[in-house]
## 1
Amino acid sequence: MSSSMACSGCRRPFVARRSLVGALAVGALELYGPVAIVPAHAQYPVAPDVVVFCEPTLKHALGDVAALWRSETGIPVRLFTSPTWAELEQIAHHARDDLVIGAAQETAGEAIARQLVKPGSIEYLWSNRLVVAQRAGALPTGVDLAALASKVPIALVDPGRALAGDDSKKALQALGLWDAVRAKSIGVIDTGDASYLLTHGRAQLAVVYATDVAADPALAVASELPAQGYEPIVYWAAEAAHALSPNVGKFRDYLRQKEVQARVKVDGLEVLP
């Protein structure tokens, strides 16, 4: 018997529902990689693995945390990265997720308003900062950005593309250097692209996150941008509204362990009180 004939009284709803889920799965795969699409309320045993959605700039730090967790518990963490807005859209379309780690306070409010996360589980964990990066050993640390602005190519996230671009513009405006830097800048979509251009010699400097520099031994901090020039870059964690893993709460609590805090500091993050 074919699947479309399995329920004679509900053939059209069944086929339509299957087609919709299939379309969502294909769309998620094309946009974000292999994300598992499952029913919101699974009625079958679930593997102990913890599925985590996080911001791309946290990939290295959370990869280290996941390795520590697995060495202690034996439980894998499945890590998928995408901007916070994309994380929320995936969850809204019932992508399998147990823990979401997003950026910015307003996105946490959006996640609650859309009932995508459990409100009582939201916790602000870490902060990041913007730095001017260089290839390791290329220039002395503490370079004079004002002296180099408009003279050397600087990779910079385009404002409006991502939070990093908006924050970089604000920070450089606070220093009075925005127009000079922009005159010689190479616009990119995200800080990962900025790091790539820097390591491959296409740019001499790049404005990226501290975590980007910590993740790549080929990079070094040339100078820091004043934190008062842009909004604090904070990350929050919350359990997805339809989390399935029996270990999601334990992993969320694990993120506050002292050894984890020490690890993420090495990876460029600052721990919030």
## 2
Amino acid sequence: MPKILITGGAGFIGVNAVRRFAGRGWGVTIFDNFSRKGTEYNAQKLQEDLSGRFSIVRGDVRTDQVTLRALMEQHDVVLHLAAQVAVTTSVVNPREDFECNALGTFNVLEAVRQSERKPAVLYSSTNKVYGGLEHLSVEEQDRRYVFARGVEAVSEETPLDFHSPYGCSKGAADQYVRDYARLYGLKTVVFRQSCIYGPHQMGVEDQGWVAWFLIAGLFGRPVQIYGNGKQVRDLLYVDDLITCYERAVEKIDAVGGKIFNLGGGPRNTLSLLEFLELLKRDHGLKLSYTFASTRPGDQPIFISDNSTAARVLQWEPQVGVREGIGRLVAWLKEKKDDLAVFYQSN
């Protein structure tokens, strides 16, 4: 039975990965410090649904190197999700951001390098490593921004341009993961992810905006839009993301050291204004919102070019954005009473 270690496994993506890999018969270990609100709830639900099919080790990638080294000898794959995930938080506390993202990833890589087993490493990076994309021309339309001059999406060949402490810490980790494959022969894969959404996403204002807007609508909370609302993102449903992780594991001997952009792609894009309209039209959620200044490092438009993943991993998104949002709305309504405890106090 193959075994996977999921750092940050009690978080949004982690919980979905636990369910998928445990459902495939893998041995699954969660390594998490449970610092983020909602992780205790996630772990509780996993225990109710998957009792005996996974284990939990409480620890911190920043400090628990001895524990990490021991865990590496017990697993075939490491899915490294543990991170500080908000640009705004990184601006307020750049040291903590660096320690979580850059130092934490370095510790994971060193634990793998020093192990006998040398498990494969899948790293959850971000499109923020490309910065503001100032070199790409952008046109402003009535409800959204669009790329100009024939550009449809952003590929892995786009120059790196770390912006904000978050971009710097994730970008540094991104490059460490890549270089440990080149220098030490580790089997590592970097995924530069666009906006991921789906069940178990405890969205808040500065992270997980798709879920946050939906939750705000369900609980009658106002939201703030930073910028003019024409910013465009491509949305990738979390099930499709986990499928791509699986494909990388299946092909790890061929894809070690590679980098993939992952997002919803050109067919699954929304501006914030379009998203608000969709929520009202499809789900009867009319949000109260105000506008504020654009936040540091916020790209006016990002659309992931998934062609490398399509070619190498035979992967492409299967869940359209309207279907995916509908699934998330249904999940949030089902869990509304549980979530009320969390969101009424925040």
